[in-house]
C-alpha cells in the first residue's frame, strides 16, 4: 500500500514533534515535511507536493487561513486538513470557504486525527464531531474559495491579508517589505488599500480588525 505523504504545519515545536510521532507510528503515513509557520508551509508545499497538509491556524507571520488560500491557489487539488484549537463557528466558516478538505479540533484523539487524514487523502471530507455540530447548526456555510471578509467590507486580496497580519503584529514597513520581498513603496500602497477598503484610518484600527476577524489572536490567529 502506498504511504500517504503528510506535511505537518504547526508553530509549537513540541506539538509538531508529537504529531510527527503519531504519524510515524502508523504505517499508512509518511511525514513528508514540517513547517513552523504559514509562509514556510507555502514554500514547502510547492516543493514537496504532499498528499495532505495538516494545517494549524494560529501562526505568526502568515496564518493558516492565508497559507491555505495560497497553497490551494497554487495547487487546487491539494488536500488541506485543519487541526486547530479554534473551533468557533467563524473560524470553521472561514476555513471551509478557503477550500479545506476537513477540520479537526485539537481535543480530538489520535485515532480520529489519523482517520481524518486518511479520509481526506481518499478525496473525502472529514469534520470532527465539534466541527460537524457547527456545520449542522449553520447549513448554509459557504464551500467556495472566498477571501478574508467581514460583513459590509470588501474581500482583501491575499497580499493585502499578508500585509494586514504583519502590520497588526507590529512590523514596520521596512520589515514587511523584507518579509514579503517587495519594496517599501509597495507596502505603503497595500496599507493604503487596506485602510480604504476597510474604512480604517490607523494602525490601532487595523490591529483591532485583525483580532476581531481572526487574522491574529492578540498576538496571532
The N- to C-terminal Cα distance equals 37 Å
Strand order of the largest sheet: 2-1-3-4-5-6
Number of helical segments with 4 or more residues: 10
**Main β-sheet description:** 6 strands, parallel
Mean pLDDT across the residues is: 87
User: What letter string, H or E per element, gives the SSE order?
Assistant: EHEHEHEHEHEHHHHH
> Which value, in Å, is the CA radius of gyration?
17 Å
Helix content: 40-55%
Q: How would you describe the shape?
A: globular
The stretches of 5 or more residues where confidence is low (pLDDT under 50) are 141-153
Kindly estimate the percentage of residues that lie in beta strands according to DSSP. 5-15%
Explained architecture:
This protein has about 220 residues and is an alpha/beta fold. Helix content is about 50%, strand content about 15%. The chain contains ten helices and six strands, in the order E-H-E-H-E-H-E-H-E-H-E-H-H-H-H-H. The protein has a six-stranded parallel beta sheet, with helices on both faces. Helix 2 runs parallel beside helix 3 (about 65-75), helix 7 packs across helix 9 (about 185-200) and helix 8 crosses helix 9. The protein is globular. The model is unreliable at about 140-155 (pLDDT under 50).
Strands, helices and their partners?
Layout: E1 4-9, H1 13-24, E2 29-35, H2 38-48, E3 52-55, H3 64-74, E4 79-84, H4 89-98, E5 102-105, H5 110-121, E6 126-127, H6 129-137, H7 158-168, H8 173-180, H9 184-198, H10 203-212
Parallel strand pairs: 1-2, 1-3, 3-4, 4-5, 5-6
Helix pairs in contact: 2-3, 7-9, 7-10, 8-9
